[in-house]
Amino acid sequence: MAGREKSKQARSKVSSERMKKDRISELPYPLLCLILSHLPTKEVIKTSALSTRWRSLWLWVPSLELNSQNFPDRNVFTSFGNRLFDSDRMSCVQKLKLTLDEGDNNVDGHMLQSCLTSWIDAATKRKLQHLNVWCLPDNHRREIPISLYTCETLVTLRLFEVVLPDAGSVSLPSLKTMHLKYVWYPNDATFERLVSCCPVLEELKVSGYGPDVILVRSLSLKRLRIKLRECNGDISLTFGEEFDEASVSSKRDTIRKFLPGISKVGDMIIDEDTFKVFSHYSKLEPLLQFDYMTRLDATLCLSDLKWLPTFLERCPNLKSLVLALDNDYERIGSEEMNEISFSTVPECLLSSLESVDIKSSITGNAAEMKLLRYFLRKSLILKKLTLRLKYYGNGAAIFKKLLRIPRRSITCQVVVR
Prior knowledge:
This protein has 14 helices and 15 strands. It is α/β, with parallel strands linked by helices. It is elongated, with a radius of gyration of 30 Å. This is F-box domain-containing protein.
């Protein structure tokens, strides 16, 4: 009995010692750095107080996030950043996020500019892959250093409220994602050169401000989004009572030159104004084929609904269609809605279209019901038709009508949300 008791005590002692043992600190340095890279930088730095082994470990973490708002005294923030990037032990900075704000103590704006320049310069020399610079609006505009234009390891670039320097030479062979929000450009050539010198660029978003002329030349681009605060374009149209084919005809050449640039997109989002321009332009001359388009997200007025099959004819490989209908009853009236008809059957309805999603709520008017019958009766391989019903009022009656519509595709499911 005494032997068993001693054995239990020994096992208990060993177990207690194991529990007290710091197993995390015994992990290899690379694994510890990987763990710390998922924490905010201010939390990572606190680990330096854990033990001697942890004291300098944070300097090897490849991900940094510096926010001036976390420092009540901006001068302390700049001093901290300078010491961090001056350290020879920081050999690699894969991710860097900078948030700069002068704050309430009126720190010297030139000092923040100097820090931004020196910190990005240092990061580009340390195999920088992902850069996110967020400058909060104040009395000074921060300029990105020219060293960024030749960072060969950069994969992702996100800039907010900064100034781009005049681009003499640009080489960004690894950049795949670029988001430019409220960015100031010294000239149109800088933007053009920045985009054209990214041979593997896949996603480009420009919002807020933009150059006077947005010229995008890219063979690798997959996703393009441009949303400007102000746009003084060549195409200036007033939609409504004064809109007619003559308005489009006067800009015919401009539209003709524009269309080839988007003819190879795979995923297109168009609003009701753009859809209206396309519909009127098609009366002047045929639209180009969108052979590569597999997904279309379109917002259109009920008055333009009759032109939808014509547009779908230009999308022979379309697989997914998302529609939002602007119920403009006041402009078209019930008689015109009753006259809307769909006669042609595009190739995509017979060979590729698998999903139709009506984002706007179905009210049960004549045009909407004709559209639903059209897709259900004409789509040969349709798998899912998704729609939303306004359940107050005639929602139940609409649902019963849908159930009675014959479906050409035997695998089609109607999903009501």
